[in-house]
Design a protein that fits this description.
The structure is a homodimer of 396-residue chains. Helices cover 32% and strands 26% of the residues of chain A. Chain A is α+β, with helices and mostly antiparallel strands. The first copy, chain A, folds into two domains: 263 residues, L-amino peptidase D-ALA esterase/amidase; 122 residues, ArgJ beta chain, C-terminal domain (Ubiquitin-like (UB roll)). The interface between A and B is large, with 67 and 68 residues.
């Protein structure tokens, strides 16, 4: 068996990795910087999951120009500018940056990741000026985590040690950026996971895809997918150890927790709500109804208003295009029955109980469709004045 | 040929119809009432388009219990309560109301339409008390139009006279309710159109479906479809006249104008924006991209912030799942080129021009996908603090 032990601090716990950040003046207010790096002593296997947006940003296209199963020892990250919709020039800018980087430090197949506003060329001079001040042997995980933030109100950083039966251990750590009602103009979310586990490349691909599906793909968000969304896993094998089930479990836990941190840091969001749809005809139908709920403006505003208005939940399910029947539907808020065929009208007592549940920082809405066996849970947050303010004023 | 002449006032212009409203105390603040009716001297053919929500409200199910091509002379409308998710009891309540109505006045196959909160039984006693105070021979179109409002800030009422070559004419009039970022918990929109044209039933069905597709189905809204959405057309043939093209044109104009009134009355909305997507591979792809734009939270908040952030437009198109290519895309705001392959970065001068365009009460965003010949236009509005306020506080 194995033990997963969550540990303080972050990336520095993983053997053979360095990280740091500096400020080159793209975001003068950001003390911790606007350019960051993660580097490994030795070349790493790398797996990545990218946005499904057709207009992928230049760093993603640059990444995909490397041969399949390439290794890298350097990830450069910048905030404030997404390098998206910048065409061939955007990719050439990365080539320029990387060739200047190569003149300063020995790197193998360096990759880049960007977040910020769409439609502007990278300030290549400013970014490469970072190479004069960055300490490439630093292990400053906190600062790195803060430098990749945009509208995030807190850094997102996790690390764990996976202890095997024989007392030996390997490590996984991650940093992540993204804030709640995720915003494509700001390049939504980036996540960098590093490990010293001796994990085969095939397992990296498989477990990263699985982990993404049950974490970042379950948080909503506004139905949009950014041009820059990126989740990367790098492994330098330095521990010489590996245990697939332990790695899977640790990775899933870590990615789920990071996804919840993104939701909690929702732009102006105050509540985290799980929308479980069960009893659907197929998992696809359960997913459709569940994401319709977590995306619905009307559900989100009702959450913000703490209004036990289950009519909006029901109407959203009815409009989601799945097989359903109002006489078979059952809705709960946490353990409180809110709607069923026999119990349609909410009396004052139950309405008050519902209101108490909705006042909590997080709660669960369960909708049993009563048509089959499939289920799916997605996670959402409320929509507040603050969200409108942040998104109306961003950029200007 | 023919002339379409818009005329003042509303339903009273159509021969042989009566209408009125009264307040029975469901919505004490509404001077003009909460129960309204439209009645014809003689039975009418009726065509209707209903919500695609699986959970259709009881009045829609009640309507559908009549035989195909039934005739009616009476429509009863109430605000404040949607009679949705009320099961068989909701339909029985309508039967009770209609049987009491029949004891007061001679009616043929009366139908009902409701708008308001989901999940509560109708107050049958209150509604039937209306029958004691309503003047069934009234022609009070303004009051009727106001009585069906919920969060609407102004009544929506239109009438026109269609003059044929020989100087004779028939009339069409309509009232409608609905406010911008349409809200399923409030039963979104209702529209009642009456005419004295001698229009065959087949044409009524055909022209109403066409008119709906280019008006109410083009306004967005939040991707949601309410349990109560209803558009009805009643014709009593009283003028004895008909001209298909003239009727089609007048109906389309009237329905489009009503749809724009709904958008302008958007909950907290300040701007009306047309999103034309052209050069798409198919009309279905153009529609997908266009409605993605008018539904996007991020586009809506950028409109509210008057931020010429075309990155959000581009990103939304890229995420909409249609065939597209960033080097072929061209974006205009009104006549101003905002983005093309050769022209990616917005300089200060153009940004200022874009800002001037966005300050207008209405403008057009055109996205040429460059992949084909198909186009589609939908209409949206901005998302303001006020929207969140209205929807967080509604009901409580």
């Amino acid at each position: 068996m194995f033990n997963i032990i969550e540990i303080k601090n972050g990336l520095e716990n993983v053997k053979g990795f360095f990280c740091g950040a500096t400020n080159v003046g793209m975001r003068p207010d950001a003390e911790d910087g606007d350019v960051a790096f993660i580097r490994s002593e030795v070349p790493c296997d790398i797996s990545a999951v990218f946005t499904t947006n057709t207009f992928q940003a230049a760093p993603i296209k640059h990444f995909q120009k490397y041969p399949k199963d390439f290794q890298t020892d350097f990830v450069l990250i910048n905030a404030k500018n997404a390098n998206a919709m910048t065409g061939e020039k955007g990719i050439e800018d990365i080539d320029t940056i990387m060739s200047i980087l190569s003149s300063k430090i020995n790197v193998v197949n360096p990759v880049m990741s960007s977040t910020g506003v769409i439609g502007y060329r990278l300030p290549v001079d400013k970014i490469t000026s970072a190479f004069d001040t960055l300490n490439f042997n630093a292990s400053d995980s906190h600062r790195t985590a803060r430098a990749i933030m945009t509208t995030d109100s807190f850094k997102k950083e996790l690390a764990c040690k996976v202890e095997l039966d024989n007392g030996e251990s390997f490590n996984i750590a991650a940093i992540c950026k993204g804030a709640g009602m995720i915003n494509p103009a700001m390049a939504t979310m980036l996540c960098f996971i590093i490990t010293d586990a001796d994990i085969p490349k095939n397992d990296m691909d498989e477990l990263l895809a699985q982990g993404t599906e049950t974490s970042f793909n379950r948080i909503s968000v506004d139905g949009d997918t950014s041009t820059n969304d990126t989740v990367m896993l790098l492994s330098n094998k330095k521990s010489g150890l590996y245990h697939k089930e332990a790695f899977r479990k640790a990775l899933n836990q870590m990615m789920f927790e990071l996804a919840m941190m993104i939701l909690k840091d929702g732009e102006g969001a105050n509540k985290l709500v799980a929308f479980e749809v069960k009893g659907a005809k197929s998992e696809e139908e359960a997913r459709k109804a569940s994401t319709a709920l977590s995306n619905s403006l009307l559900v989100k505003t009702a959450l913000f208003g703490e209004d036990p208005n289950w009519g909006r939940i029901a109407s959203t399910i009815g409009a989601s295009g799945i097989a359903c029947d109002e006489s078979k539907l059952i809705i709960h808020y946490d353990d409180l029955l809110i709607y069923s065929n026999e119990f349609r009208e909410l009396d004052k007592e139950r309405e008050n109980k519902a209101y108490e549940i909705m006042k909590q920082e997080s709660f669960k809405v369960t909708c049993n469709i009563g048509m089959g066996e499939a289920s799916y849970t997605s996670y959402g947050c409320d929509l507040s004045y603050e969200y409108v303010k942040i998104n109306a004023e961003y950029r200007t």
